Amino acid sequence: MTGQPKNYHRQAEDTVALKGKPRWLKAVASESRQTSEALRKSELLMRAINVSARDAVLMMDAEGRVSYWNPAAERILGYTSDEALGRNLHSLLAPQHYRRLFEAAFPEFQRSGCGNNVEKTMRLKALRKNGDEFPVELSLAGVQLHDGWHAVGIIRDISNRELSDKALRESEDKFRTYMEKAPLGIFVADHTGRCLEANQAACRMSGYTEEELLELSLQDFLAPDFSGVGMASFKKLKTEGRVDGDLMVRGKNGKNFWINLVATTIGPDRVLAYCQDITRRKQTEEEIQKMAYHDALTGLPNRKLFSDRLGIALAQARRDQKGIAAIILDLDNFKDVNDTFGHDVGDRLLQAAAERLSAALRKSDTVARLGGDEFVLILPDLKGTEDVDRVAQKIVDGFRNPFSIDTHQLIVTTSIGIAVYPRDGISEVLLLKHADIAMYQVKQAGRNGYRFFNPNSS
Known about the structure:
CATH architecture of the largest domain: 2-Layer Sandwich
Helix content: 40-55%
CATH superfamily of the largest domain: Reverse transcriptase/Diguanylate cyclase domain
Distance between the termini: 180 Å
Number of strands: 17
Radius of gyration: 50 Å
Number of domains: 3
Strand order of the largest sheet: 2-1-5-4-3
Shape: rod-shaped
């Protein structure tokens, strides 16, 4: 072998050193690529967010100049990115009265990144490119870079929100005005019926002040006899969302009166109720009802109501297998009273006779006036004719006492005819016919008495 002998040990070290260096460089390069890739992804993500954002996103450098302007800023503020970049942000967007405030606060932000307007959301006005002022929400944050503090701002156009808020306020004002001026009583209650609001008409109607009403529930207004009806109405309101009906309620003075109530649910936990005092209407309805079924002079049931009650009594008698007495009577020589003393005295005599007849009967009995001086009676639930005898004799005896009409002492007797179900007939027509026959038999016998129908009597 020729040449210098080789140093295999040194050669091995050099080989290891050469082989180790590329592995280290590869690790550094790989880490750098990963960092760059993460940074690139982060930048792409932030760019995508800013591009797709519905709010204006912008940046201001340490000198107050615009350094970033996203597409939403172009749409909301009217300036393109090229028009906005590099311009002073305050002079670009702030109306004069806001500009002085921001310019006064900017030196502090340049020094420390802090200030009264940083890291908070403000409502203020901004300027569009065309000079229009519009309401915005502005959020600012400071970012410290190598050349000083930069600001990141997000501007949200709240024009539509303010219009909605204004419309809501106007609607609430209109509702409040309507509540105060409405002639109807208006209540707002929660889902339990507790009163939350009430207008002046409701206060006048109930007699309570608004403060007192707010301590009460709608159930507290119900008259005792209507508490069950009120509870049923409230349950219906919860299931169907609306109730409409007439209720009797009690005012602060303890007096009952009628209202018409219309209540609807508003959302899950509110009830709006309108009520109108209908006491006069109810009284009128009762008067009309009374006129339709009662005699105007005496207040007794008239022929129609008497017929209805006799029909009901007959049905109950058939079911219970009991007796009924149908009685017809008139006043003896009543025509002479009218002719002698006049119709006014005659009318007052009929009224007094009606009172005397009513006093002789049980609560379950009925006395009605058919017309003129003719009265009819129903005696239900008879166990025997002796009950009828007692009532008839009581009436005859009562009529023997004088009637005091003005200065007159009038003695007027009565003739009474009686028919008994089922012996003398099973229908209304037959009973009244046979009672009428019996009454005329009394008159033929000299008046001032009573008689049961007897088919064998002439």
